[in-house]
């Protein structure tokens, strides 16, 4: 076991599938107790079942400013402490010309990808002690750009700026915050996976390794960032892309 998280409590949003679920399973396997959330009740319940009984889970919507502090409060009530936060919940993009982008689409992405991360982090900070760590999910689209992805890129570039600013704010308190920027990952919500066929092939061809990444490969990096092995990493945005071109 590379890291020992026994006695630690990790809160994960968007834990019902994909990177969130894989990270929940990884962190639990390293000894931590989990508090998990997802907007889909059945999905988060299944993740809870996979982890085991010593877990707190709830169905909620992190785009709600009321739901975020309630989730953190419920975590403290159920588990007594908080050490790690993984802000994973988010909405993947749909390619849309800006002139065709509705206010509803803009509001949905900003509320979940940006406001949710902000609200969970704000609620968690008073409960975090020196040695605690936060990891946010950005994207390769928060580092590079693509046409017809302007709103999604806006939210993910925003996550990177938020992470770097909070690193300066929380670092003196002994709390680290970093972000991971995944490339094309084989998850149920990846637009290429949903489309299948040539869409998957195109994503694979854009990776230097000739394949999509797995959710478990992202989870491994998140575990490292939580660990003392990454004790001087603060404000970093770690690209996990297989060498995306």
UniProtKB/TrEMBL annotation:
Among the GO molecular function terms of this UniProt record, one is: oxidoreductase activity, acting on the CH-OH group of donors, NAD or NADP as acceptor
Q: What's any GO biological process attached to this entry?
A: fatty acid biosynthetic process
Spell out the family assignment given in the record's similarity comment: Belongs to the short-chain dehydrogenases/reductases (SDR) family.
The keyword rRNA-binding is assigned to this record: no
- UniProt key word NADP: yes
Keywords tagged on the record: NADP, Oxidoreductase
Protein name (Swiss-Prot/TrEMBL) = Uncharacterized protein
**Which ranges form a coiled coil?**
none
